[in-house]
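Problem 3 from the worked examples.
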Amino acid sequence: MFINKRKNDEREKMASPNDTSQAVSQPEPVVPEPVIPEPEAAFAANGNGAAKPAANNLKPSIISEGFEFIGEIRSNGYLTVDGIVRGTLSLHSIQIGVTGVLDGNVTCDTMNVKGNFSGSLDCRDLTIGSRAVVDGKVSFKSITIQRGGIVKGELKKKP
């Protein structure tokens, strides 16, 4: 609508024979403003203390029962461990299933332990399930320990 008005104004100026002292100028190109989408929540809670990626983010990764992974994992996504993982992990969210074993240095936003964890953990939200065993140096902002969950080692609450 604004573009049509500008063109109409320019046509009127050109068609007006009364004023010949004005120079005819070229219309300035109209550049549309880029559309910036609203930021969405990167992760949505799934009701069991863990977070899952939003639909447009990374798909969850799974180390299934019967698999063993040794090494380093880095991602902004979600990892479920039902097998064995040993090494260094840096993720958004980790869930250790009932059959899962994680041994190593872990940094994450949320961690839900239903199986076994040993090593060093630095996370924001930690949930320890009723059949879980956590052993090591654990740093957290908030923690939930269900009845029956076992915690050994050092616990440190972050400010």
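Problem 4, a separate protein:
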Amino acid sequence: MSGQDNSQDQQHDENKLIALRREKLAEIRSKRNAFPNDFSRDTLANDLQNEYGENTKEELAKLNQHANIAGRIMAKRGPFLLLQDMSGRIQAYIDRKGLDKELVKEIDTWDIGDIIGVSGPISKSGKGDLYVKMETTVLLTKSLRPLPEKFHGLTDQEQRYRMRYVDLIMNQEARETFKIRSKIVAFIRGYLNDKDFLEVETPMMQSIPGGAAAKPFVTHHNALDMQLFLRIAPELYLKRLVVGGFEKVFEINRNFRNEGLSTRHNPEFTMLEFYEAYAEYYVLMDRTEDMLRQLTYHLYGKYTIEYQGSTYDFEQPFTRMSVKESVLKMNSNLSEENLATVGSLRKVCDDLSIPYEDSYGTGKLLIEVFEKTVEDRLNQPTFITEYPTEVSPLARRNDTNPEVTDRFEFFVGGKEIANGFSELNDAEDQAARFKEQVAQKDSGDEEAMHYDADYIRALEYGLPPTAGEGIGIDRLVMLFTDSASIRDVLLFPQMRTE
């Protein structure tokens, strides 16, 4: 039998099951409200397991504690129904002798996937499993579609992403991933609040997309009859707030970039950006190191994590080196002379089969070499500093070497997790760099920045010395949940239409 024939047979069988379940629902509708909303749950499965899991059957009988539980039927085990709620699983015991006969008949028609409420005393089976004995029970929601047969859930990865609701029902690992994601965001928010940062919200629709080199999504505002862009970064708005006197601000935000899809990229993604006045970039490096070290311990009670078969240590001081130092370290055949001029760097790129444009200067060429030979080899937590001015249009030039900026990127497991720098607060320098970006855009670079006259005006009022940073929440969650693809940590990743 071909795969297509097998798929058609499965679809036919599923359609029959759906039709049967619809018949059951119609029967219920003929007798009563098929979707009652008057059952009150008073406890969760995991709470019962924690509170009573160690008690013996005899102890539970003496306690005579009752519970109202509700959840989805995940399995039928003789007289027991295995229920699943947001916290975990617990059994419900069908007391066929004590329950009304008509109710028992209805219970026998219930299917795996149905959502029910159960009230009764807490007890234990002969095998030592906790359960709630049914004194009363009610069908709350009839499930019309059968759940996947295999106990571990959907086996087709794309279907897991498309039907995340089914994946979450069937897959404990998926549920745990998104619980950890929530904990990570909550921890970061609490950490910054404790450091006196103010959480703010900035526009998601912008007349000028700025704050990053990326291609934006374009939309149109009908009432104003104007073109707008979905934001690629909140950076320029956050720095406007620093100008206004909010000296420590952060935003956990959704950004949109009209770029490719990969295991590391989704066009809609979550970023943390935070800015601190009267701080230099190394202050944020120290803050990031402390925050991630504390986060690791908060999640796992230790300072190491496992990711894709490797162990990463957040307790040891994070490695710090410049872009140039990292290139020389990872390429023992190169010397500083090889990285000194456009001509020598072009030769290095040629030898490494790295494409480049005639317009690339030493800074851009050096970054091309870095990305090809260094980036994916930065395994343990590492800060890379001194990014070339040519590729850092919003960062402050270094006082002693204007060819580089006071900027860093943070890497773990060969992935960039964060990008930060001392902000450029010289309005005239920023205006000149915007003009350079406009020239690049005019020459065909779709990701080059626009000229933002209002941002220049804000700088002219005076931006205090400030450091800012962005951390990719999705990649951070990938790291802390041992997830190979960004789609594994997004509840609803972008997919082609079915």
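Solution to problem 4. The chain has 15 helices and 19 strands. The radius of gyration is 29 Å.
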